[in-house]
Structure formats: structure tokens, C-alpha cells
Amino acid sequence: MKYKWTTLTVLISILTLLTGCEPLMVLNPKGPQAQTQANDIMLSIWIMSFIVLVVFLMLAYMLIRFRASKQRNDYEPPNIKGSLLVELVCVGIPILIIIFLSVVSVQSNKKVESQPTGYGNKKPLIIYATSSNWKWHFSYPSENIETVNYLYIPTDRPLEFKLYSDGPITSFWIPQLGGQKYAMSDMVTTLHLAADVPGEYMGRNANFSGKGFAENTFNVNAVKQKDFDKWVKDVKATAEPLTKETFTQLLKPGHLGQLTFTGTHLKYLPPNESHHTKQEMGSMMNMEHEKNKSEQTDHSNR
């Protein structure tokens, strides 16, 4: 009786703990790219679960059907030849499963690597995500703003992240918005994301990059477009400008809290132009210059 109550208590405790568990972030998507990946994960899980169930049922059948029986000592089992049908099933079904998953993976990869659709003619918001030991710098060229260790993004609008590193190789990852992609010092990689639901999400470096790796995280605030525009206006009215000296200090190894600046570090330390064309960098800088010029004109008119 004592053993019975102990077992019952353990089972109730496990069930109680499980009811308090939050769903895995990768299976709780808040954007189209993450939704595509979550669907693929669940599809793989259901296929694997079906295979495991079939294997265990076959095992149970064979253990019962062909179990040892009381036969005389001189009994010899019949000579059974191989079955073509069994061989076709054992070889053909795995091949069909692999072909099916390959087709699904190729289609999903193409969708995830492309700019999200379904947002009308909205232009993607371009953000440069730069990693250093052990922090993240987010530059908004068109808004002329830079943040450290946090992102502010609008919902229902495509996002285009330009990833590179001012230190070791890192991996940019926001689990509820999409998969991870590497940020390297000698090239710029592009990651397309979008957020459909306002909220706060967790982002982090998913690639080991030294002793400060565990705290190399950032917060993501997804808000409606009008709230994003208000945030941009507030930052320009209150934040300090990002100077070259300040950015140089930020690059030193260590951890920082959340910081906000006007201006970006792209004019001080632009990405590697061998993988980021001079024409693109020039157009970006001209855009930033025209933005600043327009703001100065508006301020003088006031």
C-alpha cells in the first residue's frame, strides 16, 4: 500500500509540473517564417511517431505469433524463402518517406529564405544586426537610430536583417519569429522575418562565442506600426548621438544593458564591402544624409 501511494504521489507531481510548462518557443510561432518551420517540425514528429507505432505493433505481433512453443526435440522449422513483398515494403516505404520530406524541406527553405508575402506593398524594414563580445548592435539606417541589446520592430511588415559580426562568428536567432542564421566578420548574410502578433520575444546568439555566450541575448519588442513610429520620434527627441569614440568603447568585450542612440555606427565601421557592394552602401548613406538634412530643415522652420 505504501508503494502504491508513493507511485501515485510521483505521478500527480509530474502531471502538476507539466501543466505549468510553457510550450516550446519554436512551436509557438508569431510570424510566417516561424510558422512554416513549426509546421515542418510537427510534420516530422507525426511521421516519426507513426513509424514508431507501426514498429512496436509489428514487434508485438511477431513476439506473440512466433513465440517459442512446445515442440519435440527433433523438430525442424520449414525452409522459408525470402518474400519480395516484404523486401519492397521494408525498402520502398523509407525511400518514399525520404522523398516526401525532401520535397517539403526544399519548398519550406525557399519560402523561409524569401521575403515574407501577404503584407501588400509594404517595404521591408532594413535592420543591421551586428554582434560583438558579447552584445548586439541594431542599426536602423532609414530611421537613423541604433540600439544595443534590444529590438523595436513593427508588426505586419516584412523585416530584412543584415547580419555580420565585429568579433567571432555568432548566430542570430529569434525562435518565435524564425530560424537562426550565422553572422560573420567577412561577409553580410540576409535573414527575412516578420512578426504578426505584438508582444515581447526573446532573441539570442545561438553559436558558442566565448565565456560571455550565455548572456549574449537581446529583447524583441513587436508593436503596431503607429507605436513603432512613435518610438522612433521619441528616440530622436531624447537619445544621445552615437559618436565614433562611444562605439569604440561599446566594442570592448563585456556585457551591457539596453542602450539607445541617434545615428548609426555604419559610417564609422561599415560591413565588409567585398560582400556588401559599394553602390548599396552609398545609397544607404545618401538616404541617411537626406533624412538628417530634412530633419534639420524641419527643426529650423520651427
Structural features, described:
With 302 residues, the protein is α+β, with helices and mostly antiparallel strands. The chain folds into two domains: 25-59 and 88-114, no CATH class; 125-296, Cupredoxins -  blue copper proteins (Immunoglobulin-like, Sandwich), CATH 2.60.40.420. The chain contains six helices and twelve strands. It has helices spanning 2-19, 32-65, 84-113, 225-238, 244-250, 278-301; strands at residues 125-132, 135-140, 145-148, 150-154, 158-165, 170-173, 181-183, 189-194, 199-205, 217-223, 240-241, 259-262. The strands form two sheets. A seven-stranded mixed sheet has the order 8-5-1-2-3-12-11. Strands 4-10-9-6-7 form a five-stranded mixed sheet. α2 (32-65) packs antiparallel against α3. The longest helix is centred in the first third of the chain and has 34 residues, at 32-65. The radius of gyration is 28 Å and the shape is elongated. The N and C termini lie far apart (84 Å).
